[in-house]
């Protein structure tokens, strides 16, 4: 059983993850930024923490994380302006890494982006900046002292999860349901020995626990 602090808990991946972690007997502290999200997250069985990653500072965030051994970062500005992407996906991740270290949390799971996203398409400056920031965030976490796992999902869908994925160090690009992403994060948390891995993820044919178990 882990004590998990989730940044971005009210999001599409975050809410699914909260439910799966609670079902798996983990304790969850769900960080969210709007008061109206509290009831849903508590209904899923989480304790809640009302904070905005852009407004908070490292000491405040560290106090909120205190008591948790694992942090998941699945927040994102959702393709908004470059400024907001830099603040949430970039500086927000860096603050969370620093706060996790200050709070004594050892494990950190980051939902990043697949390097091939956008390949072959005409991409906007905003998207190019998003990929740049995600990459810098990966590097920031990978250089830290934490036991990290970086997950790079393909294009996220809202299809019902199949419980089956393709997970590897280098795989072909594709879609992955947010439900399967949440299940994969749950499996990473269940595999305590899994650390220092960058995992690419799409929907696939292998049951999630088997797919993640092979990295240990
Ligand atoms: N879309 C794709 O195809 C794709 C592919 C690969 C990776 N990803 C990454 O996957 C992650 C999760 O995706 P998703 O679909 O779950 O995204 P989502 O539904 O947009 O969830 C992101 C969460 O981050 C929260 N957030 C934004 N700004 C915040 C702030 N200042 N303080 C605290 N929380 C804040 C949002 O809060 P609110 O609910 O209040 O808005 C939201 O709950 C994102 O990091 C995204 O970059 C996406």
Summarize the model shown.
This protein is an alpha/beta fold.
Task: Name the features.
globular, single chain, 216 residues, two-stranded parallel sheet, binds NADP nicotinamide-adenine-dinucleotide phosphate, NAD-dependent dehydratase, NAD(P)-bd_dom_sf, nine-stranded mixed β-sheet, Rossmann fold, 39% helix, alpha/beta, NAD(P)-bd_dom
Write up what this structure looks like.
The protein has 216 residues and is of the alpha/beta class. The protein has one domain: Rossmann fold (3-Layer(aba) Sandwich), CATH 3.40.50.720. The chain has seven helices and eleven strands. The chain has helices spanning 12-23, 38-43, 58-65, 82-103, 125-142, 178-190, 208-213; strands at residues 3-7, 27-32, 47-50, 70-73, 107-111, 147-153, 155-157, 164-168, 175-177, 197-203, 206-207. It has a nine-stranded mixed sheet with strand order 3-2-1-4-5-6-10-8-11, sandwiched between helices. Strand 1, helix 1 (12-23) and strand 2 (27-32) form a beta-alpha-beta unit. The site of NADP nicotinamide-adenine-dinucleotide phosphate has 23 residues, from helix 1 and strand 7. NADP nicotinamide-adenine-dinucleotide phosphate binds at residues 8, 10-14, 33-34, 52-54, 74-78, 88, 111, 113, 153, 155-156, 178. Residues 8-191 form the NAD(P)-binding domain. It holds the Pfam family NAD_binding_10. This is NAD-dependent dehydratase.
């Amino acid at each position: 059983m882990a004590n998990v602090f989730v940044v971005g808990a009210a999001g599409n991946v975050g809410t699914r993850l909260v439910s799966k972690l609670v079902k798996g007997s983990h304790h969850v502290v769900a960080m969210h930024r709007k008061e109206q999200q509290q009831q849903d997250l508590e209904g899923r069985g989480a304790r809640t923490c009302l904070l905005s990653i852009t407004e908070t500072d490292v000491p405040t965030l560290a106090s909120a994380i205190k008591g948790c051994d694992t942090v998941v970062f699945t927040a994102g500005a959702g393709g908004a302006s470059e400024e907001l992407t830099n603040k949430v996906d970039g500086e927000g991740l860096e603050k969370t890494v620093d706060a996790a270290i200050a709070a004594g949390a050892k494990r950190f799971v980051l939902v990043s982006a697949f390097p091939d996203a956008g390949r072959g398409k005409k991409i906007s400056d905003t998207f190019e900046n998003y990929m740049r920031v995600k990459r810098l965030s990966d590097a920031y976490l990978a250089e830290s002292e934490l036991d990290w796992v970086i997950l790079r999902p393909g294009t996220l869908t809202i299809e019902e999860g199949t419980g089956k994925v393709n997970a590897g160090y280098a795989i072909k690009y594709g879609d992955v349901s947010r439900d399967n992403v949440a299940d994969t994060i749950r499996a990473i948390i269940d595999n305590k020995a899994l650390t220092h891995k960058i995992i690419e993820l799409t929907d696939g044919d292998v049951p999630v626990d088997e797919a993640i178990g092979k990295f240990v």
